[in-house]
Design a protein that fits this description.
The chain is α/β, with parallel strands linked by helices. It folds into 2 domains: 6-169 and 262-269, 3-Layer(aba) Sandwich (Rossmann fold); 171-202. 40% of the residues lie in helices and 14% in strands. It is built from 8 helices and 7 strands, in the order βαβαβαβαβαβαααβ. A 7-stranded mixed β-sheet has the order 3-2-1-4-5-7-6, with helices on both faces. Strand 1 (6-11), helix 1 and strand 2 (34-41) form a beta-alpha-beta unit. Helix 1 (16-31) packs across helix 6 (231-240), helix 3 (111-125) crosses helix 4 and helix 6 packs antiparallel against helix 8. The protein binds zinc ion. Zinc ion (ZN) is lined by residues 12-13, 16, 141, 144.
Amino acid sequence: MTNQLTFLAVHAHPDDEASSTGGVFRLFANQGVRTVLVTCTNGEHGDTMEGLKPDHDSHDGDDVAAMRAVELDAAVAVLGIDRLIRLGYRDSGMKGWPQNDDPRSFWSTPIAVAAERLRAIMAEERPQVVMTYNEVGFYGHPDHIQAHRVTMAAVALLDYEPTVYFNTIPDSVMAIYRERWEQEERERIERDAANGIVSELVEETPSDGEEIKMGTPDAEIDAAIDVHGVASAKYDALAAHHSQIADSFWMKMGREQFIEVMRTEWFVRATNPRGLVGCVDDLFAGYR
Ligand SMILES: [Zn+2]
């Protein structure tokens, strides 16, 4: 088929597709753009349905992965995604965890090996627009960093250059989120204190002192996509990942406030074969 527009996003875990691209996925599906989701890991180190963390004795990574696979299928249906490809790597856990070194983990997989698999998918789909994370994986998670590296390596192997976007959040919006998280943290400490529990503020800076700067200066945003009209579907896609995000601030907002607040998804351009200038309102700018 000629002129078929195709969007391909490479995400690290089940639920990332909903949180960072749920709006554009649903928007493109509504527009007749073909949408392809590549999810790199099975998310073994997520929470169990009962909220148990991966360091708990009763936490079974394979059970968590099986549950998250079902949740991902539900989110994919909500977002109208045409094709889901699971690369099936094992969740690498957070930076410094021993699971980083599991030979089955995404982090331990040679970039060239995973990139060749992704290249074959891209060669078949020929997406004009590819989305993944920046070189720090937006917030430093090893699987997100690896998704970046593998995607850039795969793109370099193609016989054409797609427009690659990284998801981001403008600094001005990050400041609002941070304020909200700090408020929630203060409330938690007050609640604990009322129950006789002495707790401390959770340090945001990792112990190795490497601070990751999340977000992008507002003036450097290359694409701001209005997803207000599909925000309800984005909410449903997030809600489909119940085991991971039932306690998240998105769900606490409730649908009405979520739709009101989550109006935009932001991106920066990593490649620019169409010579776009400035901030566009469509990831397919230059192709339509
Ligand atoms: Zn993730």
